[in-house]
Amino acid sequence: MATVLYITAHPLDPQASISLAVGEAFIDAYREANPADDVVLLDLYKEDIPQIDADVLRGWEKLRSGTDFDQLTDAEKSKVARLESIVDQFVKADKYVYVSPMWNFSIPPVLKAYTDATSIPGKTFKYTPNGPIGLLPGKKALHIQASGSVYSEGPLAPLEMGYNFLKKVLQFYGISSMEAILVEGTASVEQLPVIKEKAIAQAKEAATRF
């Protein structure tokens, strides 16, 4: 039995969000194909994801210097403990499905905060004399991303910093197996039904082999 983190980063629902509609089709098909697997739903807009702020940085520094956890301030303890919980949940999973729109050429801020929370030395990667190495080899990921224009090729390709960013982060963790379902050109009202239908079919097919 595998554990799958289904990570969504859109404030609307599948009826209003193309990325969530495609993601829903994927995860429904995945559950049907893998009924024994544990699928954990993480709606990042409903999760407590601490920012890497002064409390967190000071708390981490105190712990590195040997300060006991109980001696941290209440704010430091709360945020540091929550970040520890987030990354521990991430590390224990076997597969990751990210669902997000492209906003301003990249991922939504809440998803960036989540990647900050999972990018913890000693958990998802470690430093060595020969440079950092990922600690999560053998795991796999999928990113479902919707965008108004086409960024996978053509003149806008250099501006694509959503899927490419997430792919680089996961590769840093040692996750080399990553697929993408890029739902592109959604700003075209005329083409949207065809684009959505094609992406949903692609998602259902991908779910059978993920």
UniProtKB/TrEMBL annotation:
InterPro entries: Flavodoxin_fold (IPR003680), Flavoprotein-like_sf (IPR029039), FMN-dep_NADH:Q_OxRdtase_AzoR1 (IPR050104), NADH:quinone_OxRdtase_FMN_depd (IPR023048). It is an enzyme of class 1 (oxidoreductase). Binds 1 FMN per subunit. Pfam families: Flavodoxin_2. FMN binds at residues 17-19, 102-105. Residues 3-205 form the Flavodoxin-like fold domain. It catalyses: N,N-dimethyl-1,4-phenylenediamine + anthranilate + 2 NAD(+) = 2-(4-dimethylaminophenyl)diazenylbenzoate + 2 NADH + 2 H(+); 2 a quinone + NADH + H(+) = 2 a 1,4-benzosemiquinone + NAD(+). It comes from the Bacteria. Its EC number is 1.6.5.-, 1.7.1.17. Its cofactor is FMN. Keywords: Flavoprotein, FMN, NAD, Oxidoreductase. Belongs to the azoreductase type 1 family. PANTHER family: FMN-DEPENDENT NADH-AZOREDUCTASE 1, FMN-DEPENDENT NADH:QUINONE OXIDOREDUCTASE. Also exhibits azoreductase activity. Catalyzes the reductive cleavage of the azo bond in aromatic azo compounds to the corresponding amines. Homodimer. This is FMN dependent NADH:quinone oxidoreductase. It comes from Paenibacillus xanthanilyticus. The lineage of its organism: Bacteria, Bacillati, Bacillota, Bacilli, Bacillales. The gene is azoR.
